[in-house]
Design a protein that fits this description.
single chain, DHC, Dynein_heavy_tail, dynein light intermediate chain binding, dynein intermediate chain binding, DYH5 protein
Length: 169
Amino acid sequence: REVTEKLEEAVTIWIKQVRQILVESEQMRREADDLGPSAELEHWKARMSTFNSLLDEIKSSRVKKIISILQAARSKTLKQWKELDGSVTIAANEAKDNVRYLYTLDTFFCPLTKASPVTMMEHVPSLMNTICMIYCTSPYYNTSESMTSLLLKITNQMINTCKTYLCEG
């Protein structure tokens, strides 16, 4: 009984820590107004790393042993733990999926950054087709918030490239 209580205390602390990570990941991102689309990819790569590390920890043998002991003791904390485990898995899958889709845009980021306005415009139709494909096929990235954020960053990059071109010319 005493061991079970100590393990429940540990799991309760883990639950609070994992909830905090989930809450922070869902908060509105504060970003500079002139960020380009590479920042979107970097954001999702960082998020994928965070949640994959968290999943690795949750699936570790140490945690599995503690959870199995609490299952045998019919602990009430396991319901919350299982819900959080599911939420972390969903967040990890979302980040992984978004990174995979955003990598398809990576080939366009260099021309948006370094090309002249005329050359840059040659890439826009393909870029828009790829964004449309992401919107139509991604189970996670097809929200208006995600698309707005991405298109805003692409627009920022195009404006910055044009400014640089005008200042150099």
